[in-house]
Specification:
The chain has 14 helices and 4 strands. It is mainly alpha-helical. Helix 4 crosses helix 13, helix 5 packs across helix 12 and helix 6 packs antiparallel against helix 7.
Length: 374
């Protein structure tokens, strides 16, 4: 009877945190995950009736094969990298900001107001600067709202930031169908295209947003690793009680960090509407805020690693569009192929951080400190 109770208490599979995995083994797991992703993706492509090698080649060619393709890939990567940088300080603080999507939209709305109603009044450099500042302030306030409620009443930030995404989208829809609707539109409710004054200049064929985002990458790295604020974020993330014991104002740190997070995301909204789309619409955020969570998590909140991962996802996004055209693969199938690769990328990080311990057949519950078979 005792043995039966012990075996019931011990689960079939347990998770254990890995502490001593070498760098070589980590990269071996990542390489294995990539190979598995390509193998499973190949099976999916074969089911669709295409040559896997030809499809993978087209993904690379369609995203990196020429100047035009590379420019589009960089444009896709800019807001993705920026949104990942935006949520990194909040995530470091263990504040689960799922609202970058709404913060991007809020910043875009703030920038669009000045593009539409001040575009013919202000000179271009001043207008672009005002649009950028507006996007930073509005995006920052959008991030500050859930932080205030969290600090004041302990609300759930995950649900709060998620719901704010839909409120921002609703505001955009109201403006597009109401006060900001272009009267000269072709029967559909649209917001007018920005004038030349409200469009970002280009450098090497891509709007200068790529310079801004790379500068932000360095800035966020220095801020999180070497500044006093970055140290406070780390302490609050480890333990709010420890932070309070050390004399830190935890509420202030939470609100300050989330304003920064929302401000950077809002700036990405400005880069999208002023550098890529030249207007505001319901697809301005484009799911970037959610994909950025994957980028930040895979990079372990390292800004420089985010550059590589955002670039890889941009290649997948642009390459998926290319195979739709070249192989007549449906958009949904191209998305499934990208999802397979992402699934294995995420999965490998799980096995880098954790190991599975299986219960020995017929064994009782292990004593404290005992080990199972991997």
């Amino acid at each position: 009877m005792t043995e039966h109770k012990h075996s019931q208490r011990e689960p079939l599979v347990r998770l254990a945190k890995r502490e001593d995995l070498s760098r070589g083994k980590k990269w071996a797991i990542r390489l294995g995950a990539i190979l598995l992703a390509l193998a499973v993706g190949s099976l999916f492509i074969l089911v669709l009736g295409h040559n896997p090698l030809a499809v993978y080649k087209e993904i690379l060619t369609g995203s990196l094969g020429g100047p035009s393709a590379r420019r589009v890939t960089v444009r896709v990567a800019i807001p993705l990298l920026g949104a990942a940088l935006a949520i990194a300080p909040a995530f470091k603080m263990k504040f689960w900001n799922i609202g970058a999507e709404g913060q991007i939209m809020a910043g875009a709305i703030g920038a669009t107001y000045f593009a539409l109603f001040w575009g013919d009044t202000l000179p271009k450099p001043v207008l672009l600067l005002v649009m950028a500042l507006a996007s930073i302030v509005v995006g920052g306030i959008w991030g500050l709202i859930p932080a205030f409620f969290k600090a004041r009443w302990g609300t759930n930030e995950t649900l709060f930031t998620l719901m704010l995404n839909y409120i921002a989208l609703g505001i955009e829809s109201y403006l597009q169908n109401g006060p900001w609707k272009d009267p000269s539109g072709t029967g559909f409710p649209i917001i007018a295209m920005f004038g030349q004054n409200a469009r970002l200049p280009k450098l090497f064929g891509v709007h200068v947003g790529w310079i801004i985002v790379l500068a932000l990458t360095v800035g966020i790295f220095v801020y999180m690793k070497y500044s006093k604020h970055g140290y406070e974020i780390s302490v609050v993330g480890e333990s709010e009680s420890t932070a309070r014991y050390a004399g830190m104002n935890v509420k202030k740190i939470i609100m300050r960090t989330m304003f920064l997070s929302g401000a950077i995301a809002g700036l990405m909204g400005f880069l999208v509407v002023s550098g890529a789309d030249y207007t505001l619409n319901g697809g301005t955020s484009g799911g970037v805020g959610f994909t950025a969570i994957i980028v930040a998590w895979l990079a372990h909140l390292n800004p420089f690693a985010m550059v590589l991962i955002a670039g890889l996802l941009a290649v997948l996004t642009k390459g998926s569009n290319a195979i739709q055209t070249s192989f007549k693969i449906p958009a949904s199938a191209a998305d499934v192929l990208s999802a397979i690769i992402l699934f294995f990328m995420l999965g490998c990080e799980f096995f880098i951080n954790y190991r599975l311990i299986f219960r020995r057949s017929g064994s009782a519950a292990p004593e404290k400190g005992g080990e199972g078979r991997e």
